[in-house]
Amino acid sequence: MIMKIKLRLSIFVLLMGLFAISGYSQNQQMISISNLKYTNGSAIPTGTPIQIAEGGTVSVTFDLGINNPGFALIQGGTLSVYSKLNSNTNLQHVSIFYGQNAISGSVSRQCTIELKSSHFPSGSGSIYAQFSPVNNSPILGTSVNVKTVPLITSNYIIGNQTVYEGDPVGSINGPTPNGGNGLYAYSWQQKIGSVGAWTTIPGASGVTFKPTNVSVSTISYRRIVTSLFGTLTSTSNEITVTILPNTPIENNTITLSGSEIQGSTPTGGIGSFTYSWYAYVLEGEDPVLIQQTTKDCSIPASIYQFMENIGVAQASIIRQVKSGNKFSNSNVVTIYPSQPIQNNIITLSGNDIIGSLPTGGTGTFRYEYYSYLELPDGEIEGPSMMPGSEQNYAGPIQSYLNIKYYRRVISGNKSSYSNIITAPIIQSSANKTSLTENIDSDLAVYPNPTSESINFSTTFSTEKDIEIIVYSESLPNTKSVFKGRVIPNQIVSWNIPSNYLKGIYFYKIVSDNKEFKTGKFIYR
Hints:
Radius of gyration: 52 Å
CATH architecture of the largest domain: Sandwich
Shape: elongated
CATH topology of the largest domain: Immunoglobulin-like
Number of domains: 5
Strand content: over 45%
């Protein structure tokens, strides 16, 4: 009877042991991963995946334990941790063998494993604990998800700039990056010159950065972005801030001669200068900006006219010089209203026109010479302004026509016209008839006026040898544009050179050593 009871008890215990093992085939309270953290970082809360940088590795530390109250596990076995790569593949990281005997109570061991992103090609997976009893089915425990985190992108900055010493430097800006785990830490580095070392800027930890207290140099900046507890790092492009030296501007003086102001070449600043000129005409009012930006200044007639219109006896002019962020105002010069111009007389001297030195105005004079043609019928053609702006006019001024000349003198807002003189007329030895006569001939000239070319159309009844000569006041010599034999109704075309001045031109037709036709055309 006693043997039957022992046998039944043994069978009961065995069945209960087998039942207990099979009943705990997945028991996270019995087989557990707890106190999970990044080995060199923060804890990983329950329900939060382990994050691995794309292309990188991560080390995690945890407590791996078996809780076996009441000897539920009556056999020993192996305690393991696996990575589940996909539905068919696992990778073992930890294997702890506890022998063949039952484990008493609870046991725990701290473990550290290294996970690689390459273990999880799909970008996600898990690790899990497992106890494998001797000669029995495994019991699954805690499972923790694993997630691959993408690299940091869009880490770039803008803000290249050149400023002058003492001026503020603008912000260096960059967008919030992408990638990582969405949480970013920023630091900024600088490098002095082209060969300096990169150093971290204390306190610079924002998305943007504004340099302060910079001195004369070339300084490079870059932004460092980290994510995923520092396991992901990205370094931006470099931008450069150039600080230029800027010293006070000196030697800014001006002197007045007539209506011309000469300015000195300044020193200091950054070595290059911009100029502005101001006229103070009305006391207590804003100055008039003179539209000139050169080192010297020609006082415009409008300033003198303004003074005359409002009846002021004098005005002041200054020059303002800017270089970098420095400004300098020159000394003041005083100007007075322009006076009437007198003593404007011209005379002939051979092939030249001699002009007197005028008086009045502002003391500075500008000269213009004009010519016009007076035809026998009293008609006037012109005037045309002649090249040059000197006090005298260098000829030649002799002509085949009755051409008259005068000079205009300009100073400030005043102008004066001289007397009129007549140029000597060149007489033809072959034809005593005035060249200004419109002699009927078998030749037409068109188009007239013209802007490009002129046509000489002949209606001769027989062949003729002719020469066509063109001349004007702007040509130093006569110009033979055609010389040869023409047939009846032939058209001779002449393309006017582009460098010829616009104005009145004259022509003459010579045949058999006789001038039998003269005329004029307008080039415009």
